[in-house]
Write a structure and sequence with these properties.
The complex is a heterodimer of chains A (about 120) and B (about 110). By secondary structure, chain A is mainly β. Chain A contains no helices and 11 strands. In chain A, the strands form 2 sheets. In chain A, strands 2, 4, 5, 6, 9, 10 and 11 form a 7-stranded mixed sheet that branches. The radius of gyration of chain A is 13 Å and the shape is globular. By secondary structure, chain B is mostly beta strands. In chain B, the strands form 2 sheets. In chain B, strands 1, 3, 4, 7, 8 and 9 form a 6-stranded mixed sheet that branches. Chain B starts with 7 loop residues before the first strand and ends with a strand. Classes of the chains: A mainly beta (about 120), B mainly beta (about 110).
Chain lengths: ~120, ~110
């Protein structure tokens, strides 16, 4: 059974960089298709951030592309999200998930608040 | 959202409800549609994939369909535990990425 777990700071200051890691267990990250990040601002809907293949090739949401970097570390079986120059609008629950044309395995999510 | 869903839907226990998802040729019109159920405080759950396929463990009360640039999720024999937010999603060839509908909040009266 594929399991994903997000980790990272729950509070980030405006203009700084949000960094989250998703550890994958029960499945080799190199054996999968894509690994993705999705977020949900409080009271709003789901927003796709981006997907990455185990070889490092990635797709990003055009609205976030200039600020987003997703990377993968196959040796640690994990992948990471960096979102730069954050503002209060980036406050959200962040989820990592496995994508094979659909997101069928999800992490439990982590709340990141952007505030000084 | 590029995919349009009604913001809310409701029904009484035992009823059948449907939730629509309207898109365009670059997304629903050219790719498959997936549906997710999201309960507050939990991770979203894949409910329907590839337009009408149910993952293991999803009751057959849930069904999906697609026609042209629109899709719909049907829930029959509505139960109180079905009260949740429902999202459609698809790949968009123009945006080159995954798009979600705005979500539909289902209330069981």
């Amino acid at each position: 059974q594929v399991q994903l777990q997000e980790s990272g700071p729950g509070l980030v200051k405006p203009s700084e960089t949000l960094s989250l890691t998703c550890v994958v267990s029960g499945f080799s990250i190199s054996s999968g298709l894509y690994w993705g990040w999705i977020r949900q601002p409080p009271g709003k809907g789901l927003e796709w951030i981006g997907n990455i293949y185990h070889n490092g090739s990635a797709y990003y949401n055009p609205s976030l592309k200039s600020r987003v970097t997703i990377s993968v570390d196959t040796s640690k079986n994990q992948f990471s999200l960096k979102l730069s120059s954050v503002t209060a609008a980036d406050t959200a629950f962040y989820y990592c998930a496995y994508y094979e044309g659909y997101f069928d395995y999800w992490g439990q999510g982590t709340l990141v608040t952007v505030s000084s | 959202s590029v995919l349009t869903q009604p913001p809310s839907a409701s029904g009484t226990p035992g009823q059948r409800v449907t939730i629509s998802c309207s898109g365009s040729r670059s997304n629903i019109g050219s790719d498959t549609v997936n549906w997710y159920q999201h309960l507050p405080g939990t991770a979203p759950k894949l409910l329907i994939y590839s337009n009408n396929q149910r993952p293991s463990g999803v009751p057959d009360r849930f069904s999906g369909s697609k026609s042209g640039t629109s899709a719909s999720l049907a829930i029959s024999g509505l139960q109180s535990e079905d009260e949740a937010d429902y999202y459609c999603a698809a790949w968009d060839d123009s945006l080159i990425g995954v798009i979600f509908g705005g979500g539909t909040k289902l209330t069981v009266l």
